[in-house]
Structure formats: structure tokens, C-alpha cells
Amino acid sequence: MIEDEEVILHGIKLYQPDLSYHSLSIAFQLKDIETDTDFYIAFNSYSEQLCFELPKLENKSWYLLTDTSKVDSCSFEEIKWNDSSYCVLSKSSVILISK
């Protein structure tokens, strides 16, 4: 536990990170207790798209903050994401924020 923050590791399945030396993906959730904000960050170094399950939020939704596969539109404009998963393209990463 980091002061006023909580870090939860995930893999493509919630709460199941692959921490092996040959793993090519990881995701984590940062919970800022003070501001009641969650961040979900996923990295995909695999050669194909991977779909990551998103944690459920109480009375909030996930908003896509950035997706590095969309370099041309990497504007940090928050887009509401209603699905229970997010597919991350090969060699890309994403950041979602709770609101």
C-alpha cells in the first residue's frame, strides 16, 4: 500500500497477472483514495491484440484517456467506455480513468 493509493495488478483476466519472465502483457489499477479516482493502465507487448477485462466500478464509469495505437488521435480527450473489457492492439498501451 502506497500512502493514499492502492495498486492492484491484473492480467487479461482481473486479479490474474502473469508475472512470469516471458509474459508480454500486464495491467494494473491505481486507486487514489484521497480523490476517489481510479486509473486502469494496460500494456500489450505481444504480437497480437489482447482483450483485458476491466474492473467494475460502483456509481462510476471508465473513460478512455489515451490509447497509444491511435497516435494520430492521441489527444487525451476522455471518451466514455461502456464495455466490460478493452482490446489493446499489439505493442500498445492504454490508460482509462474513472468518473
UniProtKB/TrEMBL annotation:
<dbReference type="InterPro" id="IPR013780">
    <property type="entry name" value="Glyco_hydro_b"/>
</dbReference>
<dbReference type="GO" id="GO:0019156">
    <property type="term" value="F:isoamylase activity"/>
</dbReference>
<protein>
    <submittedName>
        <fullName>Isoamylase</fullName>
        <ecNumber>3.2.1.68</ecNumber>
    </submittedName>
</protein>
<feature type="domain" description="Isoamylase 1-3-like C-terminal">
    <location>
        <begin position="10"/>
        <end position="72"/>
    </location>
</feature>
<dbReference type="Pfam" id="PF21156">
    <property type="entry name" value="ISOA1-3_C"/>
</dbReference>
<dbReference type="InterPro" id="IPR048650">
    <property type="entry name" value="ISOA1-3-like_C"/>
</dbReference>
<keyword id="KW-0378">Hydrolase</keyword>
<keyword id="KW-0326">Glycosidase</keyword>
